[in-house]
Design goal:
about 230 residues, mainly alpha, two-stranded parallel ribbon, 5 strands, about 5% strand
Length: about 230
């Protein structure tokens, strides 16, 4: 699609092009829950060159997803994402070497400790990759905590959970019990360890950079909600 508008403005937290409201792909008005997010989304539209490229408008994409995909049935969306609480990255530890085990413990234990206190749950932490069932009450309470978030927050948390592999870490981020960089480093401990031991290749670096971009976009989207 070629750019057909000259002016971009925000009115009542909705984006307007030449005075006309923008709609999502599902034809719902593109109205944002905060002024800060509305201005950021509008800036993406203002920054479009001759041709509209949705890949260069990630905040708009997340907003569209929140309105069209999440908002119609947030409970079902949250339930689908909550399954990560059954096999969270933070539950599964390396058997060795000792330095890797120590890194995992230092980065992951504080988030699990926070969740224990915040939600009154406990976790089964194990070594290896074989699945170990978590207490049913833990899984239920993590799902409840996730489901308490509104659609726009769920739209942001979805890529954060799937990219990092940890629902507990994403909840810690949402509750400001962990920082964005802290969570990213925690989620990439194993990957960084492998790179230190065996080196990195161009494809791996490109893939990691792409995941980092998507992660940072989702983190920014969540922060702009206020």
């Amino acid at each position: 699609m070629k750019r057909f508008w000259r002016t971009v403005e925000v009115a009542e937290r909705g984006v307007r092009l030449d005075g006309k409201p923008v709609h999502t792909p599902g034809r719902a008005p593109l109205v944002l829950p905060s002024a800060a997010l509305a201005e950021a989304v509008a800036a993406e539209w203002a920054g479009v060159g001759e041709t509209l490229d949705p890949r260069a408008m990630p905040l708009t994409g997340l907003a569209n997803a929140a309105i069209d995909r999440v908002a119609p049935d947030p409970a079902t969306f949250a339930a689908g994402l909550a399954v990560y609480g059954e096999s969270d990255l933070l539950y599964y530890r390396a058997e060795g070497p000792a330095e890797l085990v120590a890194r995992q413990r230092a980065a992951w234990d504080p988030m699990l400790d926070w969740a224990r206190g915040a939600f009154g749950v406990d976790f089964v932490v194990t070594t290896g990759v074989m699945h170990r069932a978590q207490p049913a009450e833990t899984v239920a309470r993590l799902a409840e905590a996730l489901g308490a978030h509104p659609p726009f927050a769920l739209a942001a948390l979805s890529p954060i959970v799937t990219i990092t592999g940890t629902l507990v870490g994403a909840l810690a981020l949402a509750h400001r019990a962990a920082g964005a960089e802290q969570l990213w480093l925690a989620a990439t401990i194993d990957e960084e360890w492998q790179a230190e031991q065996w080196g990195d290749d161009d494809l791996a670096l490109q893939a990691r950079a792409g995941r980092r971009r998507d992660y940072e976009t989702a983190v920014r989207f969540l922060a702009l909600l206020g």
